[in-house]
Amino acid sequence: MSEVEKVRKRKKLIRPRGKRGGIKHSKSKNQSNKHALAIAKYHALEKKIARCTDEAERATLIAEQQESGGLTNYQDQSTTGGSVIRGGESAKWCAQVLKEVLPAETKIRLLDIGGIAGTAYEKYDWIEATYLDLNPRAPHVHLSDFFDWPIPSAAERYDVVGLSLVLNFVGDLAKRGEMLLHAHQYLRPRGYVYLVLPLACVNNSRYMTHDHLRAIIESAGYDVVRQDDSARLTRWLIQQRKPKRTKSGNSPLDTVRRKYYDGTVFKKQELLAGAQRNNFFPDIMAAKQVAEGVISSLNIDKSKVGVMELDERNDGSDIQGYLKEKTSQGTVPNIFISGKHLGGCDSLMSAQSSGELDKLVASL
Ligand SMILES: C[S@@+](CC[C@H](N)C(=O)[O-])C[C@H]1O[C@@H](n2cnc3c(N)ncnc32)[C@H](O)[C@@H]1O
């Protein structure tokens, strides 16, 4: 090796990488791993809490979550590389694309769910943001669960609802999907939802891909206006479709389903194999939820509806086996009306649209 090459090689080795420099870089990687582990633990506990039906066990899980610092610690860890107070990383993309799709000089009202410190949109004077969080870190951020935030009158609806890194936070898979539908109620006609998820939720999940998420979004009554991935995040600007003409349902959510949901039932099925992958899936239109929606919209005495949750019973798989033998249907929900087998969710929905269902339940 020539002297010049030796000097070049030495220089290359000692040159610090990025702002942090070589040695500090590996220390900060450890730190990020620690943050990632804390976040993963919080999410795992959140899912267990959502699934848990035993009060005592639930209390133990909540205590475990509190012992590790609770939501405040989670918020601190989940903003690795930036401060909770600064915020705004994903808001920049949202502001850019809104500028592109909206007429010049438009001022907008935005409802930011999971707004933590309420700073994400502060530098955009054309965005009037209202922030909500389960654990607000500034006085102007409202302490509220999105599901409890009052539904505004038509004149007060928002132009945009921000769901940045919120869907993946929710432990109850059904609530993830519900959140997307729930957002319709806060939007002015043809308003937008800004949806952000960790990129791994779509490119490294056994049950999700970009195409699958797009199909779910579309079935929930939105058009994808812009989609883009950064190194860490997948970002979607989606726009509310024109609602279907329909009569109101039995609850606000039922009405939203009727107006915007196109009827596709998404089953949790493996799309990408691999034990190392995560299992992100917004159970947006799980057959069970759809069936519940249809049943709750029926004009019948609800005490006459019986539900047996097979995954919550020790003999659940025996019952499922027996049902398969009797009805040739091994999937759930497996619906009977007055002892007569109707079928699964698809059969329930076609019976509803043909009017057959109303006839079947009329004598109940
Ligand atoms: C990972 S942080 C996201 C912060 C910020 N939006 C961002 O993009 O960086 C998730 C936040 O969502 C909040 N959150 C989760 N579910 C919520 C709900 N149902 N209503 C209001 N806030 C919620 C949590 O309290 C948490 O602060």
From TrEMBL:
Compartments (UniProt record): Nucleus, Nucleolus
UniProt keyword annotations, A-Z: Methyltransferase, Nucleus, S-adenosyl-L-methionine, Transferase
Compositionally skewed regions (Basic residues) per UniProt: 7-28
EC number: 2.1.1.-
Superkingdom as given in the UniProt entry: Eukaryota
InterPro entries from the UniProt entry: Bmt2/SAMTOR, Glutaredoxin_subgr, SAM-dependent_MTases_sf, Thioredoxin-like_sf
Principal EC category: transferase
GO cellular component: nucleolus
Any GO MF annotation of the entry: rRNA (adenine) methyltransferase activity
Keyword Transcription regulation belongs to the record: no
Binding of S-adenosyl-L-methionine, residues: 114, 133
Keyword Protein biosynthesis: no
Stretches for region Disordered: 1-33
Family: Belongs to the BMT2 family.
Official protein name in the record: 25S rRNA adenine-N(1) methyltransferase
Organism listed in the record: Malassezia yamatoensis
